[in-house]
C-alpha cells in the first residue's frame, strides 16, 4: 500500500525537509503541498490524500481551526507537526482531542533514522492511513464537582492504558466518572512536556480530581493519577490496604517509558482481584502482558473494540492473548468499570 500524503506547512524550508525525509521512505508518496488552509482545502478536494501532515501554526486559519473543520466536514487521517514547548503541548493536546491521529515533534526531522525508538514520521503516516478517522463527538461544558449517588467499594481501584488514539478516548471515558470515582491510575503514551497539559485538561473537563502522579501519592477515592511522560515508569506500591504511586527509573518496556505493562504488572501484584483494568486504543502491544497478569490474579479486564478504536493495536493483542475478559465499544467501558467497583 502506498500512502498518498499531502504536506500542509507555510514554511517552504520545512515543506522541503519533510518531502526529502519522506522521499527516502518506502511506501510513502508526497502527492502535493499547501502553504495555508485555503490551498489545503483545494488540494484535499482535488487529490483525496490518504493522510495529511498539518502544521499547527499557519497564517490565516491556524492548524487547529482547519483541523476542526476538516474532521467535521471531511474526516481525514491527520498527523500534526508541533514543538515540545509548553505552548506546543497545549496545542497538540487540543489537536488530539479534535481527532488528529498523532503529533510529531518537528525537531526529530533533523535526527538520523534509527536514532530513537519512537515511531518515525513515516511510521505514523503508515499507521494513520490504516486508522479510522472520525468527526470528534460533541462534548458538554466542564461539569461541576458534586459527589454523585455513586458509592465506590472501599477496596477497589481502576487501571487504564492507552496510546495513539487514547487522548480522545480517555476524555470521553473519564467525563463519565463521578466526582467520587474509585482511585484510578493511567498510562497514556505521550512526551514529558505533554502530560502536564493533558492532566490539566482532564481536570477541567472531568468531575474527579486529575493530576500527574507523584512519588508516594496515596491512591484516594475521587482522584485520577496520570503517569508523567518521559523518564520514569508509573507503578503502584504499598499493600492492598494502602496503595501509593511509585515512579521508577528503569529501561523502556516495549519501547515505552512509562509503560502500560509496568503499571498493570504492579497492579496485579498489589491489588489483584480488587483491581479492574482497561486497555484502550494504541499502536503496538504495550499493556497486553500486564493486563493478562491482572486477569490471572482475579482482576476484571476490558478492552476497547475494533470499531471504536482509532488504532486497534494494543487492545487487539491483549484480546488475542486472552488478557481481555470482555471487549466493549468505548461508550460502554466507563459504566462497566464503575459497576465493577461499586460498593
UniProtKB/TrEMBL annotation:
Chief location: cytoplasm
PROSITE patterns the UniProt entry points to: CHEB, RESPONSE_REGULATORY
Protein name: Protein-glutamate methylesterase/protein-glutamine glutaminase
The organism of origin for this protein: Sphingomonas rubra
Superkingdom of this protein's organism: Bacteria
UniProt cross-references to SMART domains, sorted A to Z: REC
Reactions catalysed according to its record: [protein]-L-glutamate 5-O-methyl ester + H2O = L-glutamyl-[protein] + methanol + H(+); L-glutaminyl-[protein] + H2O = L-glutamyl-[protein] + NH4(+)
PTM comment, free text: Phosphorylated by CheA. Phosphorylation of the N-terminal regulatory domain activates the methylesterase activity.
Functional note: Involved in chemotaxis. Part of a chemotaxis signal transduction system that modulates chemotaxis in response to various stimuli. Catalyzes the demethylation of specific methylglutamate residues introduced into the chemoreceptors (methyl-accepting chemotaxis proteins or MCP) by CheR. Also mediates the irreversible deamidation of specific glutamine residues to glutamic acid.
EC number(s) reported in the record: 3.1.1.61, 3.5.1.44
Active-site positions on this chain: 163, 189, 286
Amino acid at each position: 500500500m502506498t500512502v498518498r500524503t499531502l504536506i500542509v506547512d507555510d514554511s517552504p524550508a520545512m515543506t522541503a525537509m519533510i518531502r526529502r525525509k519522506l522521499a527516502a521512505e518506502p511506501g510513502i508518496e508526497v502527492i502535493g503541498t499547501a502553504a495555508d488552509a485555503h490551498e489545503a482545502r483545494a488540494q484535499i478536494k482535488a487529490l483525496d490524500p490518504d493522510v495529511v501532515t498539518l502544521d499547527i501554526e499557519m497564517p490565516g486559519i491556524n492548524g487547529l481551526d482547519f483541523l476542526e473543520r476538516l474532521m467535521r466536514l471531511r474526516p481525514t487521517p491527520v498527523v500534526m507537526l508541533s514543538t515540545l514547548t509548553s505552548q506546543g503541548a497545549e496545542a497538540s493536546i487540543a489537536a488530539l482531542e479534535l481527532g488528529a491521529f498523532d503529533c510529531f515533534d518537528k525537531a526529530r526531522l533533523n535526527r538520523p533514522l534509527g536514532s530513537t525508538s519512537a515511531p518515525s514520521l513515516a511510521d505514523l503516516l503508515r499507521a494513520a492511513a490504516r486508522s479510522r478517522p472520525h468527526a470528534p463527538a460533541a462534548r458538554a461544558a466542564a461539569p461541576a464537582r458534586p459527589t454523585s449517588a455513586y458509592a465506590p467499594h472501599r477496596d477497589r481501584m481502576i487501571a487504564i492504558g492507552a496510546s495513539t488514539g487514547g487522548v480522545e478516548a480517555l476524555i470521553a471515558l473519564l467525563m463519565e466518572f463521578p466526582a467520587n470515582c474509585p482511585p484510578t491510575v493511567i498510562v497514556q503514551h505521550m512526551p514529558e512536556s505533554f502530560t502536564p497539559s493533558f492532566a490539566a485538561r482532564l481536570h477541567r473537563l472531568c468531575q474527579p480530581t486529575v493530576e500527574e502522579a507523584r512519588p508516594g501519592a496515596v491512591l484516594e477515592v475521587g482522584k485520577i493519577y496520570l503517569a508523567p511522560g518521559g523518564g520514569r515508569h508509573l507503578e503502584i506500591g504499598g499493600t492492598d490496604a494502602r496503595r501509593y504511586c511509585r515512579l521508577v527509573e528503569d529501561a523502556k518496556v516495549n519501547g515505552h517509558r512509562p509503560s502500560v505493562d509496568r503499571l498493570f504488572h504492579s497492579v496485579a501484584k498489589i491489588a489483584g482481584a480488587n483491581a479492574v483494568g482497561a486497555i484502550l486504543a494504541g499502536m503496538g502491544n504495550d499493556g497486553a502482558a500486564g493486563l493478562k497478569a491482572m486477569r490471572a490474579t482475579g482482576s476484571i479486564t476490558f478492552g476497547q473494540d475494533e470499531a471504536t478504536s482509532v488504532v486497534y493495536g494494543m487492545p487487539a493483542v491483549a484480546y488475542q492473548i486472552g488478557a481481555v475478559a470482555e471487549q466493549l465499544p468505548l461508550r460502554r467501558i466507563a459504566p462497566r468499570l464503575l459497576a465493577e467497583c461499586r460498593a
